[in-house]
Input
Amino acid sequence: MTEAASHAIPQPGGHPASLRPASLRPASLGDVAPAATADLPISSVSDWIALLKPRVVMLVVFTGWIGMLLAPGSLHPVLAATAILCITVAAGAAGAINMWYDRDIDLVMRRTRNRPIPAGRIAPGEALGFGVVLAVASVLVMALATNLAAAAALAASIGFYVFIYTMWLKRRTAQNIVIGGAAGAFPPVIGWVAVTGGLDTLPLLLFAIVFFWTPPHFWALSLWAHADYARAGVPMLPVVAGARETRRQIFIYTIVLVAVSLAPWALGLSGPIYGATALALGIGFLACSWRVLRDAQDHTGVSQTNDAPARNAFKFSIAYLIILFAAIAADRVAG
Amino acid sequence: MTPAPEPPATLPPGARDAEAHRRRRGRNIAMLVVLVALSCLFFAITVVKMTKPGIGG
Output
């Protein structure tokens, strides 16, 4: 990133007058219509839940649960439910700390400016305290309910998301999503370790699948949201390298993802249900990525179709991961 | 030129107080639910750990 670009990035905690939260600005006609109470500077329960990024957490919990399901051995249902709860809370806590740190760029981005902190409904310090308490509690309870290795893996995933991705990579490099994607790949490993206390090839392959899934998933989103990222000074790939290069990278990563996704079947760690599903889904994802690559675009790479293929690829990528993990679980249950 | 009319307030002061009260009440109830749920969770974990073979004699 250029020096000029780095200067353009607002620092955490800074709220220039023009970027003041809605609750501190004079009301405008545009603020009134959607919700008459939206500017009330008092948080509701839903604000605290929003701080935990529930939609992101759902996918994390699902992959963590599949990791537990695939692991050899068993865990008492109460302890298994506690482990799932810990993964859920830890993911939410990491999201809350992320929202605390990114409150300045969240305020600039259209997609995130109504989040509780930039909207002024939750004070930054309260959000940080909330996130830290939940993070520490989730790790301690995980250690109590399962084992120290699972608690350590959980702590590592929180630390990776907060320190490596949010604080270090996100504002510095276009590879933020590639390396930072590892944080989202931890849950199946944590689930596995919670049951077995150790690691094996299969959880590492599940880690690799989520790791290589993250870049095409997120870059597809960033193709049509790049203006938001540019305004906030976040060096997402389309902002730094352009849409054309981003489309190329999406296709390359999808090829790698499909190859990695077939590995559990090729290595005999899963059965034909998973193998056939992974192959079919892989062909589908490759077709989506190919359409993204071949999207009608001008000489600068700007889409002439309002990034319709990228939007489709983004939606498909979510279904892809859910069905892929469900298939490997189905294979284990059937086998 | 006459000044532009003031935009309408989002809520009258009384309604704002009522909404603030409603939100605080909701948060308090949520906190109660979380504390009770945590107590139950710790009790359940303790029972399971105590009944595991080789633990607690």
Remarks:
- Chain A has 14 helices and no strands.
- Chain A touches chain B at residues 26-29, 31-32, 36-40, 42-45, 48, 76, 78-79, 82, 85, 141, 144-145 (CB under 8 Å).
